[in-house]
Specification:
53 strands, signal, Beta-galactosidase, Chain A, domain 5, 18 helices
């Protein structure tokens, strides 16, 4: 029998696979460069999502007692951060409970006698992204699963405890000292947020707050039990308790019921009704519904972003974790606030709670266009569209203009108090454009003509009218210009802010186009077009756009405002005539990765700079992702850098902003890089593609609305064909740089090389193996998860776990430790820090700066090296300043001794296996 070359390749591939499995090697999720995972019937990648996403689960293999490292779990409207303290403790929050989500619901503590966290030999806490659950296991006889009723305010705690001898179980709902609460939310009456009322009757215990808030906010945190006998009691003015008769399996249901969403603003009755409803439905049915909710969510899109050294895999892990965290808070009546959200463990202490900052909110939400979750985008857009009338009225009052101006820092009801009382924001004019453009994009991605007509276009029109009135006209040159405004928060009271000129150049053509499509406002188009034709040009110096007309004013913030044209204003990028100017502008930007909301990596992707986008994502994680749960200690933001990360990865894998679909426009040059995607393009095309070993295999499109498609040829000028998957009919062929073709709604198309069509690849299904431990980002202090013991091989050792001599100081504020605010430093000669570990090597991580000196490093009391921590210029993010490998397997001690009166510092250690 003769064996074909293809069959031989498959046999050899199978043999290699068997050998690797026998050797204990974990197989990558991508099968090989000869395989493809495109399902031509479904028009999407074939993925075993349960297995694939399990490799991105966050796992703690030892109890975490630090609330800031608490695991995050939520159902879309209510969420909790969970840690180990007298059993399990969590801070519960809800997105609609208070103005800008400022005030959280309270604390929940589940405990027993003997404690669940006593007398055990194994422990694991797992955040399962696919199911949306947080499961904590002690040995094989105690499991607590936190889940929820999908897209509601109700969460559940299911307990399986088969131990004998458990004498009592209790759940406490409590509130911290209300006297510490400050008016950081601009609420009309602070006293109602300092007033706690408690109740315990008819099987429900709870506490309420904010019950007389004039804006209708406030909430009730309440709980009940299914599957066990129990009693309820009021412990004191801030605590209620459920006393549960121990049994092997039961469920505690809790809700953070908001007044704003309750009939008659009665959150107590709402809480009781919600708990009764979920209890009647039962745990089994609710849990199934909850898991299906998350399974359907993940089925909407897919990305793989991996490489040989696993750093890209770490970034992919952050992608899925961040998507979960934002979605778990993103389905309320109001958007998830960029710094409050529903995940925090700081009681009511937060920053920037008086408003929603548009710049920060866009960072949180904009990735969900491409990831096919426009229902989440609606939560963001609705904040502005629902305040249409209030914004129009205020614009008339403030400016005497018939149009819409949107305050950069806007309250829940459209109020501008946070903007007009701040020099940073009071003259920012471009936010209304951004809000209008986001609404336009929502219509483009969904082909929703009703939304375009009733929501997006009115906002676009009013934005264009506002700018028409605010621009000045120079009769001598017959040009329009912006006489005075802020170039966002960084340059105040300047002439011709680039953000305003760019806003006009973006929104005016779109508004003219949509008004023509809708057949409305024909009398306004000529005026808009005249302004466009005669708008003053941007100023270019040194080949780059300037933020406003020179001379450049004093810098007030760290934004790269000229690069806004690249993203999110979408006015330039790959293939644009002004590409070189855009590239120069990005290269000369004054504040690279300057804050937790920096979007440099997204802009790098839009410019096709694959290595820079990759390194930019890594830089942002290195600087800001410093908690094992994926979160940050930076008090200027919590969720923005996660949202920027999502957008940067989406834009690196697929772009459609200029009417052309590009796959893999900005991937790193690393030959080991593997990229795969199913993402949504504008006009409703679900795009799939795979890239491996430097080769793009195909481009698959599922047309949802029958629009014209234009695909940039990923193989340059190689001949390509467009094949309809249902009958293999070739609908177009081309050797050009791009191909355009009509589509039919609900139809799948494949763009493939004529010389190497999709059929030349073996069929594959993408899968993965469940994560069981800590993940680390190389040469950084960033990690996800916790090992079984501090300093376990491969694990990150936070500076707080070291032992310090005299005169070492722990800093939690900005200054020392800008890139990880939890850090130890000393300015005393001879002061030492040490740590004992098990492994064959160790990395010592620290920042480097001009105020720092040098330290001596000892291993097992033997001098190893003098390490210079001084660095000229800007402060450097955490770097590996010393690395020792090749130690005998076993226990060792590293000692770090400060040698000068300049700063010696320890940020973290990484133990090498």
């Amino acid at each position: 029998m003769r064996t074909s070359k293809k069959t031989l390749r498959l046999l050899l591939s199978s043999l290699v696979t068997v050998c690797l499995v026998l050797a204990g090697t974990t197989l990558p999720a991508s099968a090989s460069p000869t395989d493809a995972a495109f399902d031509q019937a479904a028009g999407a990648l074939n993925v075993d999502r349960a297995a694939y996403l399990s490799k991105h689960d966050i796992v703690y293999n030892r109890p975490n007692t630090n609330p800031l490292y608490g695991m995050t779990v939520g159902n879309g409207r209510t969420g909790a951060m969970v840690w180990n303290q007298n059993g399990l403790t969590m801070q519960v929050s809800g997105v609609d409970l208070s103005q800008q989500s400022t005030y959280a619901a309270g604390l929940v503590n589940l405990y027993s006698n003997p404690g669940m966290d006593t007398g055990y030999s194994s422990y694991q806490q797992r955040l399962s992204l696919y199911d949306g659950t947080l499961t904590t296991k002690w040995d094989s006889n105690r499991t607590v699963t936190i889940m929820g009723s999908p897209n509601s305010e109700v969460m559940g705690i299911h307990v399986d405890d088969s131990r004998g001898g458990v004498s009592s179980v209790a759940l406490d709902l409590s509130m911290w000292d209300p006297n510490t609460v400050q008016n950081i939310a601009d609420v009309p009456d602070l006293n109602t947020w300092r007033t706690i009322s408690t109740f315990a009757s008819n099987g429900v215990a709870g506490l309420s707050r904010g019950q007389t808030d004039a804006n209708g906010f406030g909430y009730t945190l309440a709980a009940t039990v299914e599957g066990a006998n129990y009693s309820v009691q009021v412990v004191d003015g801030r605590k209620v308790r459920l006393n549960i008769t121990p049994t092997s399996s039961y469920t505690i249901w809790l809700t953070a019921a908001s007044r704003i969403n309750a009939p008659n603003r009665d959150s107590v009755t709402q809480a009781r009704n919600q708990l009764t409803s979920v209890k009647n439905a039962g745990y089994a049915a609710t849990f199934t519904s909850y898991k299906n909710f998350w399974h359907d969510f993940w089925a909407k899109s897919f990305v793989q972003y991996s490489n040989g050294n696993r750093d890209a895999d770490y970034m992919e892990n952050v992608y899925y974790l961040s998507t979960y965290m934002i979605a778990a808070a993103g389905r309320g009546n109001y958007p998830a606030h960029f710094i409050n959200g529903v995940f925090r463990a700081t009681q009511d202490q937060s920053k920037w709670s008086n408003a929603y900052w548009y710049w920060n909110q866009r960072d949180v939400y904009y990735s969900f266009f491409a990831s096919n979750h426009t229902d989440l985008i609606d939560r963001h857009n609705n904040l502005y569209s629902r305040n249409y009338n209030a914004l129009k009225a205020y614009t008339q009052t403030r400016y005497g203009v018939d149009g819409i101006w949107v305050p950069e820092t806007m309250g829940w009801d459209g109020n501008a108090r946070g903007t007009v009382n701040s020099d940073y924001t009071k003259n920012v004019l471009s936010t209304g454009y951004e809000a209008a453009y986001s609404m336009y994009l929502r219509a483009r991605y969904t082909n929703d003509t009703n939304y375009l007509r009733d929501v997006a276009y009115p906002f676009m029109r009013e934005t264009a009218k506002f700018y028409s009135a605010m621009l000045s006209h120079d009769a001598a040159t017959n040009t329009y210009y912006m006489a005075n405004s802020n170039a966002h928060e960084t340059y105040w009271n300047v002439r011709n802010a680039i953000t305003d000129l760019a806003a006009v150049r973006s929104i005016f053509p779109l508004t003219i186009q949509v008004s023509q499509e809708l057949g409305v406002d024909s009398g306004l188009r000529a005026g808009w077009q005249n302004i466009l034709n005669r708008l003053t040009p941007y100023v270019v110096q040194n080949g780059a756009w300037q933020p406003h007309q020179p001379p450049i004013s004093q810098t007030r913030n760290g934004e790269n405002v000229s690069a806004e044209l690249i993203w999110p204003y979408d006015l330039t990028g790959i293939g644009h005539p002004d590409y070189q100017t855009a590239l120069n502008t990005w290269n000369q930007r004054p504040f690279p990765y300057g804050n937790v909301w920096a979007n440099d990596a997204v802009q790098a992707a839009r410019l096709g700079l694959g290595d820079q986008a990759y390194n930019g994502m890594k830089t942002m994680l290195q600087k800001y992702q410093n908690y094992a749960n994926g979160m940050t200690s930076n008090t200027n933001g919590v969720f923005e850098y996660l949202g920027v990360h999502l957008t940067a990865m989406n834009e690196s894998l697929m772009q459609s902003y200029n009417g052309k679909i590009r796959v893999f426009p900005a991937v790193p040059g690393d030959s080991s890089f593997v990229g795969k995607l199913t993402l949504l393009a504008r006009d409703g095309f679900l795009v799939s593609s795979e890239r491996e070993a430097g080769e793009v295999k195909y481009v698959g499109l599922r047309s949802q609305y029958g629009k014209q498609a234009t695909v940039v040829n990923p193989w340059g000028t190689q001949q390509i064909r467009v094949r309809r998957a249902s009958d293999n009919a070739v609908v177009a062929t081309s050797s050009a740089a791009e191909v355009s073709f009509p589509t039919a709604a609900g139809t799948v198309y494949v763009v493939e090389r004529t010389a190497k069509p999709l059929s030349s690849y073996a069929s594959a299904r993408l899968t993965g193996t469940a994560n069981q431990g800590v993940k680390t980002l190389s040469n950084t202090a960033s990690s996800l998860g916790m090992g079984a013991t501090p300093g376990n091989p491969g694990g990150l050792v936070n500076d707080t776990e070291l032992t310090y001599g005299a005169n070492w100081y722990h800093t939690t504020s900005r200054g020392y430790g800008d890139y990880n605010d939890d850090t130890h430093h000393s300015t005393t000669v001879g002061s030492a820090a040490q740590y004992t570990f098990t492994g064959t090597g160790v990395e010592y991580l620290s920042e480097r700066n001009g105020d720092m000196g040098n330290v001596d490093v000892y291993i097992d009391d033997v001098f190893q090296a003098n390490v210079n921590l001084y660095a000229a210029g800007a402060r450097q993010a955490q770097v590996v300043v010393y690395r020792r490998t090749g130690l005998p397997s076993g226990r060792h001690t590293i000692r770090i001794v400060n040698k000068t009166t300049s700063v010696g510092m320890v940020d973290a250690l990484r133990i090498l296996p």
